[in-house]
Automatic annotation (TrEMBL):
Binds 1 [4Fe-4S] cluster. The cluster is coordinated with 3 cysteines and an exchangeable S-adenosyl-L-methionine. Residues 43-272 form the Radical SAM core domain. GO terms for biological process: biotin biosynthetic process. Signal peptide: none annotated. Pathway: Cofactor biosynthesis; biotin biosynthesis; biotin from 7,8-diaminononanoate: step 2/2. This is Biotin synthase.
Length: 326
């Protein structure tokens, strides 16, 4: 079955939900991982996309996402601050570019930003563009088309908005906004010419079937940059006591996402620090071909030079053009 479905994908076909569930239940995990590896190399070659982020505005978020340290609904130890000065953002962008990182994302807490904040951020992007040639991304919540156009005109190329989990499970984790609102922002960003980045967090109590639902949803929406976070339970949040996902379950999830999204960048994101080096190497073999590197939002990130060694030892090139369409 694994070989048959691998060949189906390589020949341009798509597996369905029933087939994906059957793959998730197979006992020969190594055969599943090997098939996913072959799909990765067939469609994506040795290209590896790197990006970094800056938490440009932290905490006091109005939303009640159960996993998030920045929600104002929960008592966490996250540092609170308003929009960072332009100089700080530019300094980080230049530093990351000097380390060979290809993209730099401005990320803010909150459901959406004010018009004034968007104008300030667009100015920051302009300053970054003058200082270095790093590609700019943004993750600023549920913006309207006018706000997105200001960002696009400033030089932002990619817009990030995670769907977080399967549509059928989202309301269990957040009740203050919806998947439909997220998709409205994503669709408007795409209409304006942004490349889209959207993924989620694995290990928030969802079933494997719901992870497959999420992967199929992203496939239908033609998302080609998919961050895969492993939940890093944060004390004070409703998911603070959630048991950690096993490495095998996360690796199986990566393999399924690769079967379902063969031409996407599957991106190491939050929670990677919880994984052993051996598991990280296996994930790279299976299908991870992108990563957020450096410090993350509210959790420990990674050391850039160590990561570059990890990725190149896995057979990836860090110098290829990694822009995607859509």
């Amino acid at each position: 079955m694994i070989e048959t479905l691998k060949q189906l994908v390589i020949e341009g076909g798509k597996i369905n939900e029933k087939q994906a569930i059957a793959l998730s239940q197979c006992n020969d995990k190594e055969a599943l991982y090997e098939a996913a590896h072959q799909i990765t190399r067939h469609f994506m070659g040795d290209k590896f996309d790197t990006c970094s982020i800056i938490n440009a505005k932290s905490g006091n978020c109005s939303e009640n996402c159960k996993w998030c340290a920045q929600s104002g609904h929960y008592n966490t130890k996250v540092t609170l601050y308003p929009l960072l000065p332009a100089e700080e953002c530019v300094r980080h962008a230049v530093h990351n570019r000097k380390q060979g990182i290809g993209r730099f994302a401005l990320v803010t807490s909150g459901k959406r930003l004010s018009g004034k904040e968007i104008q300030l951020l667009s100015g920051i992007v302009g300053n970054i563009k003058e200082a270095c040639d790093i590609k700019c991304c943004a993750s600023l919540g549920l913006l309207d088309k006018e706000q997105l156009k200001v960002l696009r005109d400033s030089g932002v190329e990619n817009y990030h908005c995670n769907i977080e989990t399967a549509p059928s499970y989202f309301r269990t984790l957040c009740t203050t906004h919806t998947i439909e609102e997220k998709m409205e922002t994503i669709n408007q960003a795409r209409e304006l010419g942004f490349r889209i980045c959207s993924g989620g967090i694995i290990g928030m109590g969802e079933t494997m079937e719901q992870r497959i639902e999420m992967a199929l949803f992203l496939q239908r929406e033609q998302v080609y940059s998919i961050p895969l976070n492993m939940l890093q339970p944060i004390p004070g949040t409703p998911l603070g006591d959630t048991p950690l996902l096993s490495e095998e379950e996360f690796l199986t999830t990566i393999a399924l996402f690769r079967f379902i999204n063969p031409q996407a960048y599957l991106r190491f994101s939050g929670g990677r620090a919880l994984m052993s080096r051996k598991a990280q190497q296996k994930a790279l073999y299976i299908g991870i071909n992108a990563a957020i590197i450096g410090d993350l939002l509210t959790t420990i990130g990674s050391r850039v030079e160590e990561d570059k060694v990890l990725f190149t030892e896995a057979g990836y090139s860090l110098t290829r053009d990694t822009d995607w369409v859509g």
